[in-house]
Write a structure and sequence with these properties.
Shape: elongated
Helix content: 55-70%
Strand order of the largest sheet: 1-3-2
Strand content: under 5%
Radius of gyration: 26 Å
Order of helices and strands: HHHHHHHHHHHHEHEEHHHH
Mean pLDDT: 82
Distance between the termini: 90 Å
Number of helices: 17
Largest sheet: 3 strands, antiparallel
Amino acid sequence: MGKKPNRAHRAAKQRARQGGSDFWITHGGVGARSPEQAAQALAAAALETAKGETAERFATELAGPDSLTAELEHGAHLAGQHVITRVFENGWLPADIHEAARRRVDEFAVSYVTDVLAAYLEPYPAATIDDTWHDQLEAAGVRVWWSTAQPHLSQWAGKQLLTPVEALTAVIQALALLLRLPKLELIRPLPGTVRRSAADTPHRVDDKALTRVRGLLAKAESTSFPEEAEALSAKAQELMTKYAIDRVLVEARAVAADLPGARRIWLDTPYVDAKALLVEVVTHANRCRAIFSDWGFTTVVGDEPDLDAVELLVTSLLVQATRAMIAGADPDPRDAHSRTRSFRKSFLLAYATRIGERLAEANEATIAESAEPEHLLPVLASHQAKVDKAFDSLFPAVAPKRTTIGSAAGWDAGRAAADRAQLQPR
């Protein structure tokens, strides 16, 4: 007779600690008896966290007083691999996940997401992983650093100096982020599906050409003389255009030219929409197409060498624009218009608009001076048609996005800075 009320009393206390919710009773989170139950509980906790609940609340209920249980450790691995598999199938690349994580969760959750990526890729032979994946994994420092003979979670928690509750909080936050990621277009093949051959290798920008472009843009970013920066940036675009013209003429005579590819360029806050306009005008000048996502990135479609050129020039012009915006601020503290958000956003929008005009002028001049202008125009038109077809297949429904100019002074200052920007590599 006495045991029954005691069990009821303990259950009531547990429900009280859980805020009166039957969540853990439904999902089997407290005292999970198997890794599968623990994985289910962690995934359910992450789903609730993605809806606005506090991850620490669930972590406190799951964690033991002193250490992580074997069921939880294995369950965390199962949940992570299940969720990351779906994320990759939904079109996200390693760099995209890393960029989204560093913008939305703390350093511990970012670290855990990185290890989830490494664990996912560990079984795949390197030859079956796309080159883009290799490059992005290396840039993000993704690697299996832990002993695979032991559970990962306790090794990771020890490395980060986290208590069981803190570790599980990070795990739940990481999983919640991954669950929130929307479906994207699949722009690179998934691991395990790559079958390499010589014909599959896309043409890349010549290393010498890239070195010259980088050198010019580096000088444009470092010089304190606006006119010099303008001349260097213009020269960079001129070289990229000449290289692209030579390439499309060669490809026009080839049996099979490269198919267009796609790449995502992430933009840092603030003024992301204004920076996206800069990406758009650079993209257009380099024979590509672009579309902006509210998650903070622009997807660019085009030939691989043109995508390389876009990334190089966008990165340099963003540096130049930021420096010019800061330098152009009125030093008089009584006139604070140049430090307002409206001024700065208008500055960047004007800067991007004027850069687009200058890039178009540079391209027209370069094409007119080419050796075969009458042959080049139809070749470029055919090339653009391929890019448009690839873009439309990835993004069949594109909605235009409008933005407003809130500061005339910012607009005028931005156009003036764009006139001084360097567009071409040496």
